[in-house]
Design brief:
Elements: E1 9-14, H1 19-32, E2 36-40, H2 50-57, E3 64-67, H3 81-93, E4 98-102, E5 115-121, H4 129-138, E6 143-149, H5 153-165, E7 170-175, H6 180-184, E8 193-195, H7 211-216, E9 228-234, H8 242-253, E10 257-263, H9 268-277, E11 284-289, H10 294-301, H11 308-313, E12 318-321, E13 327-330, H12 332-345, E14 356-360, H13 364-375, E15 379-384, H14 387-397, E16 400-403, E17 414-417, E18 442-445, H15 454-461, E19 465-467, H16 469-485, H17 491-502
Parallel strand pairs: 1-2, 1-8, 2-3, 3-4, 4-5, 5-6, 6-7, 9-10, 9-11, 14-15, 14-17, 15-16, 17-18, 18-19
Antiparallel strand pairs: 11-12, 12-13
Helix pairs in contact: 5-9, 8-17, 12-13, 12-16, 16-17
Length: 507
């Protein structure tokens, strides 16, 4: 296994177009908490000479890797190869801590000096990966580096496994959004280092997070061999607030864990391929599951490993994983919604019995809520654009169905919007005519972005009690946290994180 006694380095690639800008970014990287920088000479507007190298390397505040990446390996240099290698040799002679040399450079032509020997594949995980690793490890390089595009988060796990099992200092990364876990978890598994950009737009490869996100969201400084791993499965996941919420909660409660995004394209085969890659060595302990994999998650876990109401819903959004790999699951959506509604109304769940509720929509969220309302004996009517879908859902749970055109005739005490109507960016839309709201007591919008939808504003103006989707969102995250950890979740903090993100206070 890789040596984990020295702290893995958080390396900032410098992709500025002038030496002066690189020097400035180097100082900013040090201030931001980087451990090392990589000077990407192929990003400079003009080919560097020895004077440029001296300016870059004299009095530098951090250890420096010098890289002059050719186009054939994903860089920008397309000039004379011998001149490129001379520049790297000169950098080594001027005190660069490492020079990055590509594996396809013949051994006899490789510049002398402390070397990171690297191979990059932008098409995907190489079919001959074992051969490439063997060649890297057989070299006299100081650090071995393999980088390839990820086709799924299972490739991120494959990248982590490479340096986990290696006895050489190694960097192994899976590029792209699907490979993010390989960057975030590099420290846990003892990599030589990982890369993070100084600011958005200064990335040197697909999928690099900023150093601020690595430190502030993904808990880079606290990760170690004992850190447990959690994540959110979905497509898309790039804008999910769940990593910020759960990582903040782990930090607040002192739990040694990190929560990562896991992009899995639609299809049960893609979901199952990742789940099969989750071996005990990953320390994966829990997963949030969102669109489009909630049904796939139920099938994978097995109906016998989930609660009765989740079985009725036919989907789960939470998986717990024991150290031996056993799975269990639940659906926190229904409880999150019902509890948000009951808390606002000041009632118990059983007090929903006999209350008339109009549910707008017949998708996944509506299904979970209708199942729960049925369980607590509410009188539910489902309104949906596709009436046959509303009828099917209503028949399954003993509810009534109405065409969406009849929504203006609602006479229910409670309205619950389970559609995306009014969601950002279409914030001027509403699923319910304003005049209808005068006959209603409670309006619950499951949308959480924006925090106050047009429906909720108009309901408030009409004198209705309102329930925000933020409350449901926080409730389901709290329930997931407690299902996984057995620890009381810091609800107030988690809500503050959600609100900060939704109001643009945290990026």
């Amino acid at each position: 296994m890789s040596d984990t006694t020295s702290k893995p380095a958080l390396i900032v690639p410098l992709t500025q177009s002038t030496v002066g800008e690189m020097r400035s970014a180097m100082r900013q990287s040090a201030e931001a908490g980087a451990d090392m920088v990589e000077c990407r000479l192929d990003y400079l507007a003009n080919p560097p000479d020895e004077t440029d190298l001296k300016s870059l390397l004299e009095g530098n505040p951090l250890p420096v890797i010098v890289t002059y990446r050719p186009k054939r390996q994903g860089g920008r240099f397309d000039g004379d190869e011998s001149e490129r290698l001379k520049i790297l040799a000169a950098a080594a002679g001027l005190g660069a801590d490492y020079i990055d040399v590509e594996l396809d450079v013949p051994p006899a032509s490789r510049p002398k000096g402390p070397t990171i020997l690297s191979h990059h594949d932008f098409a995907g995980k190489p079919a001959d990966l074992d051969k490439i690793i063997a060649e890297l490890e057989a070299s006299d390089a100081d650090v071995c580096k393999i980088v390839f595009a990820a086709n799924g988060p299972e490739d991120a796990l494959a990248a982590l496994d490479l340096f986990r099992k290696s006895d050489r200092p190694m960097i192994s990364l899976a590029m792209g959004e699907a490979g993010l876990a390989s960057r975030i978890l590099a420290g846990k598994f003892g990599a030589f280092g990982t890369f993070a950009s100084l600011t958005p737009g200064e990335e040197s490869a697909p999928g690099q997070l900023t150093i601020a996100r690595m430190k502030n969201i993904y808990r880079w400084d606290s990760a170690g061999p004992a850190t447990e791993v959690y994540g959110v499965i979905g497509c898309p996941v790039a804008h999910s607030m769940s990593p910020a919420i759960h990582n903040s909660a782990f930090g607040e409660t002192g739990i040694d864990a990190v929560y990562v995004p896991l992009l899995i394209e639609p299809g049960a085969e893609n979901f199952n391929r990742f789940m099969e890659a989750v071996a005990p060595w990953t320390d994966m302990r829990g997963l949030s599951v969102t669109i489009p994999h909630k049904e796939n998650a139920l099938v994978r876990v097995g109906a016998e490993k989930i609660d009765e109401l989740s079985r009725q819903i036919g989907a789960i959004n939470t998986i717990a994983i024991t150290p031996d790999g056993s799975l269990s699951g639940t659906n926190t959506d229904y409880a999150a919604a019902i509890d948000a509604l009951c808390a606002a109304m000041g009632i118990k769940r059983n007090d929903l019995s006999g209350r008339r509720v109009a549910v707008i929509g017949a998708g996944g969220v509506a299904r979970a809520i209708v199942a729960a309302l049925s369980h607590y004996n509410a009188e539910t009517t489902i309104y949906n654009r596709t009436f046959t879908r509303a009828e099917k859902l209503a028949d399954e749970f003993g509810a009534k169905a109405q065409p969406i055109d009849e929504v203006s005739e609602i006479s229910s005490e409670i309205i619950i919007n389970c559609t995306s109507i009014g969601m950002h960016p279409n914030v001027n839309d509403t699923p319910v005519p304003t005049d209808t709201l005068a006959r209603v007591k409670v309006v619950f919008d499951t949308i959480y972005n924006p925090i106050q939808t047009r429906l909720l504003r108009e309901a408030s103006d009409a004198g209705c009690m309102t329930v925000s989707g933020v409350d449901m969102f926080v409730n389901q995250a709290v329930a997931q946290f407690e299902f996984w950890t057995g620890t009381k979740a810091p609800r107030d903090l988690m809500r503050k994180v959600v609100v900060r993100h939704l109001t643009g206070q945290e990026k």
